[in-house]
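Marked as duplicate of an earlier ticket. Keeping the data here for the record.
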Amino acid sequence: MKTMNTQRGMTLTSFLVVLIVVGFFLYIGMKLFPMYQEYYAVRSAMKSLAKEPGIGSMAPANIQDLFFKRLYINYSDNVKPANVRFDRRDNGWTLKVNYEVRRPLVGNLDVVGKFDSSQDLTRSGAE
């Protein structure tokens, strides 16, 4: 009695389809990763400012200078001074950063990331 041996595995066409889908998602990830990396650099700069003793007693212009020095170290270039706002609170300031990043994706399609973050800056430093 003869049994037929069947081959198992992917055909070349199905392999190319899988490769194209994986490649597309990798391409999207390469566009999105720098945006989120910059956002985490902004958050890190805000948190390190909050740990500074006496930061809530400083003038907003001085705090903004310290903030942008920290961003300069992290090569963040999408946050501009117009995106930074300070609101007075009872024992210091609330630092609010609201900015948008636009990256070209394919042809006339863009990826847009809107980032909004706030951090309380108190006179005693970290809460």
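See parent ticket for discussion. The first strand starts at residue 84 and ends at 89.
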